[in-house]
Amino acid sequence: MTLINHLNWRYATKRMTGEQVPQEKIDYILEATRLSASSMGLQPYTVLVVEDKELRTQIQKVAYNQPQIVEASHLLIFAAWDKVTEADVDAYMQNIAEVRQIPVESLADFKGSLMGSVVNRTQEQQYEWAARQTYIALGTALAAAAEQGVDATPMEGFAPDALDELLNLKEKGLRSVTLMPIGYRNTEADFLATAKKVRREKEQLFVKLA
């Protein structure tokens, strides 16, 4: 199957069966998420992986009792960094230097660019930038799940402040942005399971500029 086939197959699953997704498929989805595009490669977010059913039951209460939270096999929580510091940039520079086997000093211009375009913003501007990066990772995770024949649902329908408090995310320097339950569709309970995918026609969506 091609990527287009997989994307036609996937939809925002409303009901899941509770069946466990094999660990190798979970690992594949997580690795694809790790390799996702990110502005300047910084990846200013953390992806929390929740398998524990009891914890997901607690999370469901701050997610408007949506059933996917507990019917899924796993729940991914995409949480943006609350702020981006010079220490974060230094750690990133060090990682680049080690992976590429180059002197960290050779990255001075790149560090300066990051400092000027991100670190020198207000903390709220930093968070908003980081939060937008999580959506890039979310999109990659959704496509990877579809490729593996695993259902996944992008969800903003939850109370972020309540979830942050439940998981003590503030103390970790994180703020929850979006959720992604992973599992298998319940074709008997989900009214969308057999519905045709509806998207705008390409002539409407894409505009060619002269």
TrEMBL record:
UniProt domain Nitroreductase: residue ranges: 8-184
InterPro entries in the record: Nitroreductase, Nitroreductase-like
Highest taxon listed in the record's lineage: Bacteria
Entry keyword set: Flavoprotein, FMN, Oxidoreductase
Swiss-Prot/TrEMBL cofactor(s): FMN
Family designation: Belongs to the nitroreductase family.
Name the record gives this protein: Nitroreductase family protein
Provenance organism: Pontibacter populi
Classification of source organism: Bacteria, Pseudomonadati, Bacteroidota, Cytophagia, Cytophagales
